[in-house]
Amino acid sequence: MATTPVKSTPESPAETVEERFRRLAAAWHRDTDYLSSMDDADSHPAYQEIIRLGPEVVPLLLRDLAENHTHWFGALEAITGARPAPASAAGNIPRMAEAWLRWAKDNGCQW
Amino acid sequence: MVTPLETVFPGLARGGYRVTSPRDGEYNCIAWAAGDTRVWWWPGRDAGKEYWPPGVPRERTRDAFAAAFASLGYKICEGEGPEAGYEKIALFADAAGMPTHASRQLPGGRWTSKLGKAEDVEHELHDLEGAVYGAVVLILRRAATAAELRVDGNGCVLLIQEIENWIRREATVENRRFSERRRAHAVERGRELVHNLR
User: Fold this and answer.
1) Helix (H, G, I), strand (E, B) or coil at B189
2) pLDDT in tens, B54-77
3) Which of the residues B45, B49, B101, B115 would you substitute to probe the A interface, choosing the one with the greatest number of A C-beta atoms within 10 Å?
4) Burial environment of residue A49 by CB neighbours within 10 A (0 to 12, 13 to 18, 19 or more)
5) pTM of structure
6) Are residues B158 and B128 in the same domain?
7) For residue B77, what are the CA distances in angstroms to A42, B86, B106?
8) ipTM of this complex prediction, to 2 decimal places
9) Are residues B28 and B105 in the same domain?
10) What letter does residue B151 receive in the DSSP assignment?
């Protein structure tokens, strides 16, 4: 997997969580969008740094999941500890997204 | 001008290629090669995230991928050239032998690939080789039931291929209870439909 090192610190002290998320997500897309392995994509440094942003980033992940079905399943599970998609939905991205968004509503998450 | 795709896959510019779909993160190369655009196929560590055919080892090995395609009737073969009456799939792997990608042959000999979460492209087989996907390591083929209908025109061929793709999806993904009897019935209905269109 060809990757570009991601800076582990914010570009500037004023960078918001959303700005940092956007920067990291762009790097992740650039380096992993052509890959089929979710394990490879999820282990990318930018994805791991997004996970380290913690609960604050969850609304941003949910919004992107709702709008674009972006594969934030691993990050959401790592941050929340939840695993709402049934086994029968494995690989069915719309059903997995729907399960996560339903879980988020049921748990009072807003995005 | 070098396009973003050509930056990642420099070989594409060599043989000519055509983008044939918009970006779509709902299916990947293995799904596309298998004729399935509704799920993401991969033997990842977490069986809750990616689909993999039941009973096939969930391993990122050449044998496991060959077994996954064998579940659809494909067998390992020699030669990547087009053969009348057969559909072919090519498996790519990295230098360590870990599968990375699959392409499906089109009638006429060119190949079609879904590039991860990005677009589908029509291309020459080896033009995707390189840093991202490694190289072609395996060719598989199966009898193409639609091949005999090609003489009647592209419309008919496309029709029955669509029917068979739908059958394959139903049989392998959406409804695990889909029986061989129902599959055979659907194939027969498809044949009748094409016959009536002749």
Assistant:
1) helix
2) 999 999 999 999 999 999 999 999
3) B49
4) buried
5) 0.81
6) no
7) 34, 11, 17
8) 0.88
9) yes
10) G
Q: Is A72 left (phi over 0), alpha (psi -120 to 50) or beta?
A: alpha
Beta bridge partners of residue B122, listed in sequence order: B18, B112
Minimal Cα distance from B49: which residue of A? A90
Crossing angle (nearest 10°) for helices A45-52 and A17-32: 160
Query: Is there a single domain that holds both residue B162 and residue B179?
Result: yes
Nearest by CB to B117, from A33, A87, A94: name it: A33
Q: Are A85 and B48 a contacting pair at CB < 8 A?
A: yes
Report the distance separating Cα A74 and Cα A85, nearest Å: 12
Residues of A in contact with B103 (CB under 8 A): none
Cβ(B89)–Cβ(B33) below 8 Å: yes
Say whether both B94 and B124 belong to one domain.
Answer: yes
Domain CATH for B55: 3.90.1720
Contact B117 A83 (CB under 8 A): no
Whether residue B38 and residue A37 make contact (CB cut-off 8 A), yes or no, is: no
Final residue before a domain boundary, out of B144, B165, B187? B144
Identity of residue A19: E
- pLDDT tens sequence across A38-96: 999 999 999 999 999 999 999 999 999 999 999 999 999 999 999 999 999 999 999 99
Q: Which residues contact A12 (CB under 8 A, 6 or more apart)?
A: none
Residue B161 structural domain: 145-198
pLDDT exceeds cutoff 60 at B158: no
CA distance B185 to B183: 5
Query: Residue B144 contacts by C-beta under 8 Å, 6 or more apart in sequence?
Result: B85, B86, B87
On whether both B176 and B137 belong to a single domain, the answer is no
The answer to whether A28 and A50 are in contact (CB under 8 A) is yes
